[in-house]
Design a protein that fits this description.
- It comes from Nitrospirillum amazonense.
- It holds the Pfam family Glyoxalase.
- By secondary structure, this protein is an alpha+beta fold.
- The chain has one domain: Roll (2,3-Dihydroxybiphenyl 1,2-Dioxygenase, domain 1).
- It contains 5 helices and 23 strands.
- Strand 7 and strand 8 form a beta hairpin.
- The longest helix has 13 residues.
- The model has no long low-confidence stretch (mean pLDDT about 95).
Amino acid sequence: MSVARALDIAYVRLAAPDLAVQARFLKDFGLVDLGLHGDVQLFASANQAPYCYIVELGEPRFIGFGLWVESTEVLETLAAREGGGVEPLGLPGGGSYVRMVDPDGFEIDAVAGQSFKVAAGPENAIGWNENGSHKRVDVFRRTAKGPSHVLRLGHLGLAVTDFKRSERWYKERFGFLTSEEFEAEPGTPLGAFMRADRGGTPTDHHTIVLVASPTAPRLRHVAFEVAGFDDLMAGREHLSQSGYKLHWGVGRHIFGSQIFDYWLDPYGREHEHWTDGDQLTAAVSPRLVSIDAVMGVQWGVERPNRN
């Protein structure tokens, strides 16, 4: 039994040597700049505050991330187990957290009690004329130019020094379920897609991805859900015209099924736009798959490298 159950990913924390440079990229990527709060700069998704991205001043590095758990009582249980304390977040939205350090030194926050402000997002989709069905009649499809509308932070991928050790650490504390475990070769586990356990409530196919890597530990990518396919493509055009570097895309993943587009921030870190991902309940059993399938695509651009 795990100590807590993660409900979803709350925020990601990175450092950048120039906050203005990072802010410009994140705004072009589709996040909302909430400005400086003490010594950190906060960014929110297009239709939900308080924040999903925290940038600290410093040499480029991945610091860690937060996971929402069910209650402050759960935080107290985690704090007792980890030998730490429950602390106030001290940022917009309030709430409390317990900070832990995973086996590779990443700072992982269990978070509860935040309050949210939800604003109007992009207009509802008008449907697609496909498969002989015409849902859009007397209505013209027009996609506005500009950044994508980021709805939420969805997941992140980590390169870790010892996959099984990290998998055990996250499952014991946060109750993650394996969607797929993948092997470098039969009998040699390499990593896994892991999702939150929300019982019968559907959740994303993966919230974290762990991959054993010789260049570990590091952030592999951080991924954000956008409003839809047209929105992803509009954001792609905007980022390209703004001079940012495309890393991988467009394509559709095999595991998770998302339509994806990966971009590099000014310090070389992968940021993914995605839409139309799989939703799973806890009833779905884990599968064992090959790394070739993980790195492959259903359609679109093949991954530029396998690291």
